[in-house]
Design goal:
Blueprint: E1 3-7, H1 9-16, E2 46-47, E3 50-51, H2 66-84, E4 93-98, H3 99-108, H4 113-125, H5 135-146, E5 147-152, E6 157-162, H6 172-186, H7 190-193, H8 200-224, H9 247-281, H10 287-292, E7 301-302, E8 312-313, H11 326-341, E9 371-381, E10 384-395, H12 398-414, E11 418-420, E12 423-426, E13 433-440, E14 443-449, H13 452-458, E15 472-473
Parallel strand pairs: 4-6
Antiparallel strand pairs: 1-5, 2-3, 5-6, 7-15, 8-9, 9-10, 10-14, 11-12, 12-13, 13-14
Helix pairs in contact: 1-9, 2-6, 2-8, 3-5, 5-9, 6-8, 8-9, 9-11, 11-12
């Protein structure tokens, strides 16, 4: 199983029609400079004959020879050591793979039909994929177009995705990013940080540390290029794979790469690199924590299935049949539907309103902030080739719940939903379905099914005043989420960010 991807942020900003923040550019091909002699031993900042500030004789215009690739890898390794203040225990193998071969690997990744149907309903709840879409295909296609490289812990190998594997070129920032993952692995932090399975939200939160550190080191590298260091000119293709990616999926996948560096940077400023290493032992449990740099814990949610007429949850998927999508994914829902359907939820242009040069995108908005917890329970009916779900959300305050509820109904209106006896019906299009929503205090429940009758069968007793009480907070926990103990476990399959 491969692990950790470096995705091309430029792909999203280009497709979204927003202008990216200008990166600190490289100085071009390396110029001659004074080369220092090799040290005794293997100090931090020196690797395989190269100091971190040594030049290398490399020209990528006709592709990299084996000698040039070895030189770039050795010096990049020394630079990661210098920025991170830590020594690699052994060299890391680096090879190249074509984008076509990478996509074939993605296509070969197997997933069972039960998980695929369950996961389709999770993403359908987020209005990112519709009725006729296979989300696994969308994930593979979107990530396959965006990935610039990955690190595989098993063989301890970095694979750089290149359009010309016979005459490869390498973006040095990608190389630095993946080498940081290799260092995490050699220090025993990479494979131990992630539980065997996690919810979508916890998976993104953990990646906030893993990808956050790699992006933080990468950005520290970029700052030195052209200022302290000579850097080989990057390839001209930009690293993206073209195509027409699903921007909702891509923006979700990018959240750890955006908020993670800020999260890690704050920890390093407060506690140094030792504090960053400690964060791998106690990683964040929700994207709320990485978006807002808070220790607030999710509020536990109890749930009792009471569906009728053959509707059943998926007890063997996720966390007892449910997934937690979290604040970041809920923000993406509102942003994506504002952009694609014109929903009056958030201003899509505020995606670039960030407060830190380390932060690429802004995942903080009124209808998704104040998140307390959520659980999406997909449902199936063996007699019908259709699905549904119950989505239970908890919010910090009734006002937060009201903002989410209103924004969710704006999505329904933007998709031409009409209200019939308390049930919203989207008559056609990729989100054609029936929906019933209810708000009670700080809780909002959304029920989805193919028609109003199915909605009533999936969650009997839901009315405008809220649920009947079988959905609620765990006993013994008050309204303040920080007092609650979070128990988030189980998402299948790593969300196609790794294969």
């Amino acid at each position: 199983m491969t692990y950790r991807l470096r995705v091309a942020v430029a792909l999203l900003v280009a497709c979204a029609g927003v202008t990216p923040v200008a990166a600190v550019s490289s100085a071009g091909d390396d110029a001659p400079a004074q080369v220092r002699s090799d040290p005794s031993g293997d100090p931090v900042g020196w690797e395989s004959g190269y100091w971190h500030d040594d030049p290398v004789d490399v020209d990528q215009s006709d592709g990299l020879s084996d000698r040039e690739l070895d030189a770039l890898v050795a010096r990049a390794t020394a630079r990661v050591e210098f920025v991170r203040g830590a020594e690699f225990e052994e060299p890391v193998d680096v090879s190249v793979i074509s984008r076509e071969a990478y996509r074939d690997r993605q296509d070969d990744a197997s997933t069972n039909d039960s998980f695929a149907a369950w996961n389709n309903q999770v993403w359908e709840a987020l209005f990112v994929d519709g009725e006729d879409t296979n989300v696994q295909d969308e994930l593979s296609s979107t990530v396959g177009a965006a990935v610039a490289g990955f690190y595989a812990p098993g063989p301890d190998e970095i694979r750089i995705v290149t359009p010309t594997p016979d005459s490869p070129t390498i973006d040095n920032a990608t190389l630095v990013h993946e080498l940081t993952h290799a260092l995490q692995d050699q220090q025993g932090r990479l494979t131990s940080v992630r539980p065997e399975s996690a919810t979508q939200d916890e998976s993104l939160a953990v990646d906030g540390v893993v990808e956050g550190e790699a992006n933080y080191v990468e950005q520290r590298y970029n700052e030195r290029c052209g200022a302290e260091w000579e850097c080989a000119a990057p390839p001209s293709d930009g690293g993206g794979g073209g195509g027409d990616p699903n921007l909702g999926i891509l923006l979700t996948v990018l959240q750890p790469y955006s908020d993670g560096p800020v999260y890690v940077g704050d920890i390093r400023e407060e506690s140094g690199w030792d504090g960053v290493s400690a964060a791998f032992d106690s990683p964040p449990v929700s994207t709320e924590q990485t978006i807002h740099r808070t220790d607030e814990e999710p509020v536990p949610i109890e749930y009792e299935d009471r569906a009728t007429d053959g509707w059943r949850p998926y007890p063997n998927q996720g966390e007892r049949g449910s997934d937690t999508v979290g604040e970041a994914s809920i923000y993406v829902m509102f942003w994506y539907q504002a952009r694609e359907s014109g929903a009056d939820t958030v201003d899509p242009a505020t995606l670039r309103d960030t407060d830190s040069p380390l932060d690429t995108f802004n995942y903080d908005a009124e209808p998704s902030a104040g998140w307390g917890n959520d659980r999406v329970f997909p449902y199936r009916n063996p007699d019908r080739d259709e699905g549904g779900y119950v989505w239970v959300t908890e919010w910090d305050t009734p006002e937060d719940a009201r903002e989410f509820h209103q924004a969710h109904e704006e999505i329904l209106r933007a998709n031409d939903a009409e209200r019939e006896n308390g049930t919203w019906v989207v008559p056609d299009g990729q989100y054609a379905d029936a929906f019933r929503t209810a708000r009670n205090g700080s809780r909002v429940v959304v029920v989805n099914g193919p028609d109003p009758g199915a909605v009533r069968d999936i969650r009997p007793g839901l009315d405008a005043a809220g649920d009947d009480g079988s959905v609620g907070r765990a006993p013994g926990f008050g309204v303040v989420p920080a007092l609650a103990a979070a128990l988030l476990a189980a998402l299948a399959a790593a969300r196609s960010r790794r294969d």
